[in-house]
What does this fold into?
Amino acid sequence: MSGVRIRVLKPDELGEAETEAWRELRAKSGAPANPFMEPEFTLAVGRVRPAARVAVLWEDGEPAGFFPYERGPLGHGRAIGLGVCDCHGAVLRQGLTIAPRELLRACGLSAWEFDNLEAGQGVFQPDAAEELASPVIDVGAGYAAYEEVLRAQSPKFLKTTLAKERKLGRQAGEVRFVFDERDPAALRTLMGWKSAQYRRTGRRDRFAKEWINALVRLLHETRTPGCSGVLSVLYAADRPVAAHFGLRSPTVLSCWFPAYEPEFAKYSPGLILHLRMAESAAAQGIGMLDLGRGAAEYKDALKTGELRVYEGSSVRPGARAALYWLSREPARRAHSFVRGRPRLAEYAQKTLNQIGRLRGN
It folds into this structure.
């Protein structure tokens, strides 16, 4: 901590010099250029989450680090945008060291919860309770090379998906793909599909929360080099049949909210959409699509590799930290127990689906 000063700000209090320093530190980190780690994402969250804060670390009179977070009751902190942020952590100058307890103390936090901590986060990674896989698609060598990988590792999948794409065109009308659709109506369609999917599968509807709605709409309008909202839509006879909204940097497309029209399920429009996304991303110089943590058959079929992310919490000893542990840790451990047992996870998913059907009746 010698020579390091910490100042806590609201995101909109960051100056241009500070946000530019954030971008430069991030570019020098050597980590994949995930758009969730750019200042624009934190700035957007700050506009819809009043509790959003950024700790700015100063060393030798210059910004040397940034730690975005949200502060809740009793000093219980959480990652910025927790629940929808697929990559988080601190952005620090190489060689800068700080103890997590000191950073939390400066932020007035008794604990900081994370569920998608980026690999290599030396401050917080030792406190992780679980290491998880985040599947990725590598298109750095071009889309044709990616197709060759698919032909080698899952030839039936690729052949079947391309056949369904042709069948969709014959039976539903000409298939058209737009990588970066700007029409707000298309975004509303996607959000409606996704809400219905959450309810149908018995999961919490994220779009029932107004702040998530507002955040996605805001990011759809965000156009910066490091973090831009990208809405991709697959059309059949000019009717949207599948869509995805995510964030991109020059080299990474972070996949976020995919959904499709159930009426067209037999054509596997979501898989077709992801293949076209990979093709367009490669054409624009994007080298990686990060599919996000969580098990799913479509991710297993599409992925070429995996990144590692971490779940857990850093705490400062004290009564407030104990209250945090009692309120959060048992549930986290239960979720981890289920995830680590495929048969139990399958049973849990069937139960959620049954709940979804009951809700729909």
Q: What stands out?
A: The chain has two domains: 4-133+309-360, 135-307. Confidence is low (pLDDT under 50) at residues 341-361.
